[in-house]
Amino acid sequence: MPEYKAPLRDVSFVMNELLESEKLYQTLPGFEEATQDMLDAIVGEAAKFCEEVIAPLNQPGDEEGCTWSESGVKTPEGFPQAYQQYVDNGWPALSAEVESGGQGMPNLLGISVTELTGSANWSWGMYPGLSHGAIKTIEEHGSAEQKEHYLTKLVSGTWTGTMCLTEAHCGTDLGLLRTKAEPLDDGSYAITGTKIFISAGEHDMAENIVHIVLARLPDAPEGTKGISLFIVPKFNLTGEGSVGERNGVHCASIEKKMGIRASATCVMNFDDAKGYLIGPANKGMACMFTFMNTARLGTAIQGLAHGELSYQGALAYARDRLAMRSLTGPKNPEGPADPIIVHPDVRRMLFTQKAFAEGSRAFLYYLAQLGDVVEAGSEEESKKADKLMAFLTPIAKAFVTETGFESANLGVQVYGGHGFIREWGMEQIVRDARISMLYEGTTGIQAMDLIGRKVLGSGGKLLMGFTEVVSEFCAANTAEEDAEFVARLKEGVDEWLELSMTIGTAAMENPDAAGAAAVDYLMYSGYVTLAYFWARMAVLARQKIEAGEGDVSFYEAKVMTARFYFERILPRTRAHKKSMLSGPDNLMAMPEAMFDF
């Protein structure tokens, strides 16, 4: 397994130089303490914990996996102790509200720590990670009593949270779910049904688990309009709010999975489990989107995390592994061969990993920062940021996980045959990364959300909200030295708008046109979006070099990586354009029966 080192220099660059976080947070009430020194200090401490405590558990945890028994689920050796240390150090409370015992730090800081924990050990990070969505949901939709009983424990990490959506007969189509909620005389509900694929649904790392569950009331209308949301604790609470008797919720089994084996993925049975309605009746889907949007950004971080870890492993190996001679003459004349990093194709793979990891970091941190503006900005600022987040979230979730998986596979390729062997740890990264394209809606579902709801559903307004941001950047950076990035970015944005209109027109005549174009459209959108962040980073880096500020080699590497992205990665949009414009007939014309074999 690669020895993980937190990329602190790049994290600081994105937070403090690219996004100018200190400047922003001085204007957002409640975040004034988030200075550059504070942000760097907290990230630095998180890096130590990740590198020294949880990264060493990653490969052993994969090999041991989780163990189910009737009394519960046992996580791999060292996992509970690491989690207790995590709680004792106050990490779960980092970005939670002060009123609930949180530290009130920005979401950006929380996302950064999530990246570090996820890169170090994604399976371990899922246990506290699911709690963030539960916290956000209860903060936004819970009653005063629910907040009093559950938030403090969740925020401190004493308890963890889950979300229970999926059932065996319905995955994405939650309108088909059957879990029932029967009203009881005391105002609570008896929840009965079975949920599957519940991450961290049962484990031995916290004293209680708070399940956020979708279920139907007896008189509920059919479909998604008849779904309500409930809090269902593993242990019922006493009158004082402490852990009481066991509730009627149990883990029936855990899945045997391709990857993230140290994370318990549970089948959960609810047998007249006592639950409490959160939010209005039959409005559970609207409330759940608070959780789901948080989870989508968290899943996007998984793409970044696995891409970063694979890049680190591939880079170290490429510097050490000797094979053949450079085409331009020996670079290691005293040795029997040159390190493989001298070969163009190896550099192609490393550059691709680097471009995706650093570009995705800028993209996702920007989204997290928008979340802080939504929370604490003025009404006008909040609305604008919320619209940008709504548009960019499906791109982030799908594109970053797709490219993160590509990067994970490239890591194996750099190692050659050794990458296929378990002891090196590179194949584990591939296995662990694969689920990210399925979590919280597959790439196809995110693509339909983007093109259907966000672009066509808004009449193009959400798209134009972001392209205006990009256009303002292009208009403000007209220096000839930056033209190689800015001019190409502008061309990409203009074409993006044209393609959106073309597909929208075609979809009015044949709705399948949107579905047929959706994934290509999303990937096109992702490449152009990442081009915006790479252009921003390249312009900033060039200015730093010109001013003689900081580490010149770091900024030069930024410019060179941006050049690689624009010349070798961004041209992928041409293939996606041709494919999305080919129309739905090449997909839909063949009768279903002809798919036989």
Topology:
Elements lengths: L7 H11 L2 H5 L10 H19 L3 H7 L2 E3 L2 E3 L4 H10 L18 H14 L1 H20 L2 H13 L2 E6 L15 E4 L5 E11 L8 E8 L12 E6 L1 E3 L5 E4 L2 E6 L10 E13 L6 H37 L23 H33 L2 H37 L10 H9 L8 H14 L4 H16 L6 H27 L2 H36 L4 H18 L2 H9 L4 H4 L9
Parallel strand pairs: 3-6
Antiparallel strand pairs: 1-2, 4-5, 5-11, 6-7, 7-11, 8-9, 10-11
Helix pairs in contact: 1-3, 1-10, 3-6, 6-7, 6-9, 6-10, 7-8, 7-9, 9-10, 9-11, 9-12, 10-11, 10-16, 10-17, 11-12, 11-13, 11-14, 11-16, 13-16, 14-15, 15-16, 16-17, 16-18
Tell me briefly what this model is.
By secondary structure, this protein is of the alpha+beta class. Among the domains are: 288-447, Butyryl-CoA Dehydrogenase, subunit A, domain 3 (Up-down Bundle), CATH 1.20.140.10; 453-587. Helix content is 57%, strand content 11%.
Average pLDDT value?
Answer: 96
What's the overall geometry? globular
Q: Give me the Rg, rounded.
A: 24 Å
**Strand pairing plus helix content: what structural class?**
alpha+beta
Q: Percentage of helical residues?
A: 55-70%
- CATH architecture heading of the domain at 288-447: Up-down Bundle
CATH superfamily of the domain at 288-447: Butyryl-CoA Dehydrogenase, subunit A, domain 3
CATH topology term of the domain at 288-447: Butyryl-CoA Dehydrogenase, subunit A, domain 3
| Biggest pleated sheet | 7 strands, mixed
Order of helices and strands: HHHHEEHHHHEEEEEEEEEHHHHHHHHHHH
Beta-strand percent range: 5-15%
User: What's the CATH class label of the domain at 288-447?
Assistant: Mainly Alpha
Total beta-strand segments = 11
The count of helical stretches stands at 19
